[in-house]
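so my prof wants the structure for this chain in the tokens format not the other one, which i didnt know existed until like an hour ago. anyway here's the sequence
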Amino acid sequence: MAYFNNIQQIKYEGAASTNPNAFKFYNPAEKIGDKTMEEYLRFGVAYWHTFVADGTDPFGAGTMVRPWDKFTGMDQAKARVEAAFEFFEKLNVPFFCFHDVDIAPEGDTLRETYQNLDTIVAMIKDYMKDSKTKLLWNTVNNFTNPRFVHGAATSNNADIFAYSAAKVKKGLEVGKELGAENYVFWGGREGYETLLNTDMKLEMDNLGRFMHMAVDYAKEINFDAQFLIEPKPKEPTTHQYDFDVATGYAFLQNYGLQDHFKFNIEANHATLAGHTFEHELRYARVNGMLGSVDANQGDPLIGWDTDEFPTDLYATTLAMYEIIKNGGLGRGGLNFDAKVRRGSFETDDLFHAHIAGMDSFAIGLKVANKLIEDQVFENILDDRYSSYKEGIGLDIVEGKTDFHKLEDYALGLTNIENKSGRLEKIKATVNQYLLRTFAGE
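here's what i got, hopefully its the right format
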């Protein structure tokens, strides 16, 4: 059965194209530096937003019109697999991602849930034999069901800890079965509402124990996927233990896990943490912890995780600057953890949204690469921090001084001059590079 009869395979037609079902800037085969766009960007489709989300929000019921919704239960799950691989092929995307409950419904018991998963995983594996689209990462949903009301690995209930571990064990097995390049841990309810009834140390210790068990089991079954932690500061808990990259990195170091994990960084989560997307990417990159990206954006006028498709070219440019400086994303990718707006309820809108996101990151890649080729930011930083290349500054960097010597030096200063940061000039330069891309220069 075909689910997207109105759509042919999406192809690159160039910036002058007026075809809504074509890429204007994303040309998979175009070389940027030493990689093609497809190799650099490694786009992935999020199964949950694309094939499961129905448009429900806190104030209204679902609005999405989906041809597979005429089915229920396992029949619907099978129909979604058929629709998904048709979508992947027509979008020509190299990767997809999912939670366990996205692909198969939970049963009345954990054993029945396993059986449902096994059925759908076998179906997905069969479809993957004839598809270029591979599994970027999988994970398990340990946050939606009411059993996780007090958390999963950080729950006050040891039975829930055990149940959560069983689900992750199965998730690791599924990842290995489908050849996942990564495995993601998102602690949807690994946090607290109030400290008045929370033993923070026990909860964080238990989370550390849980992660070590996951590492050990992956080794046991020879599942060599890259492990990723996805930070988020709030929603649904008031305060989550993986608040941002810095907090997550401190957690990994504290529990001796830093050699086993990297970060999957989401743009909208960065916004909720009070950071820019590029801040989170930079913090991970300079610490050697940038693993993968959930590509979306938030609405600055709305205070929750809106998961919009990325169209902010300034943001995609600065994000791709970090990714290029990182040498690419390695085994990671750009997963569109993004959903069409509630009013965009027709199936064709799913393609339009992904085209917009893919074109936006393609532009960001081209502009960022040109900025790096021209050493724009590097020249700015070299000049701004030039005082650390000689004299007392070089002594500081090389560890050849102390407070006594620094005081003697400071007492001899008669005039200290600072240079302008020239932020406005820098932003204007970035704008110029963006506009040059559209002009074809």
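also thought this was worth mentioning. The radius of gyration is 24 Å.
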